[in-house]
Amino acid sequence: MAAPLSEQTIAIVKATAPALQEHGVAITTRMYERLFVDEDVKALFDQAAQESGEQPRRLAAAILAYAQNVDKLQNLDAPVRRMVERHVETGVKAEHYPYVANALLPAIRDVLGDAATDEVLAAWGEAYWFLADILIAKEAALYEEQAA
Ligand code: HEM
């Protein structure tokens, strides 16, 4: 289990929720542009859901919900379960998570510009890996359960 997020990180992440509400889809659309430079990662995704804008919207909603509930993650049990199921259906593995981190954080800067200070990006980097570690552990357990 990852160390809990610091009070400071929680405060910064929560403070960015309004910007995510306004620019979330622009950020996730930009994130996927960066992510899909890697053809193997791109192949995991249903391209129809990308082109309709549905997947960027779903991810933006998930990121916003996370920002709003970063200090009360029990509120996210149902959406987390859904993400884990979908990730296991599509074959997402722990080794894919750095690609998303490396696409998401620069995408936040691309869209928010100077508002995405180094402090904001560091807080989001920490928060990303906190959630990623939860997903990775649950996905590993589900893969194992399915293999048994
Ligand atoms: C903390 C990181 C992540 C979050 C918050 C996240 C969130 C989500 C959400 C909300 C969905 C939609 C679930 C639904 O159908 O309702 C989803 C689906 C999906 N995610 Fe993730 N995800 C993360 C990491 C990753 C990584 C690392 C990969 C692989 C590169 C990935 C690949 C996918 C794929 C392939 C789908 C299914 C999309 C489709 O239908 O084509 N995700 N994710």
From TrEMBL:
GO molecular function: FAD binding; heme binding; metal ion binding; nitric oxide dioxygenase NAD(P)H activity; oxygen binding; oxygen carrier activity
Source superkingdom: Bacteria
PROSITE patterns: GLOBIN
Record protein name field: Globin domain-containing protein
Keywords from the UniProt entry: Heme, Iron, Metal-binding, Oxygen transport, Transport
Membrane spanning stretches: none
Family: Belongs to the globin family. In the C-terminal section; belongs to the flavoprotein pyridine nucleotide cytochrome reductase family.
GO biological process: cellular response to nitrosative stress; nitric oxide catabolic process
InterPro entries in UniProt: Globin (IPR000971), Globin-like_sf (IPR009050), Globin/Proto (IPR012292)
Residue span(s) of domain Globin: 4-140
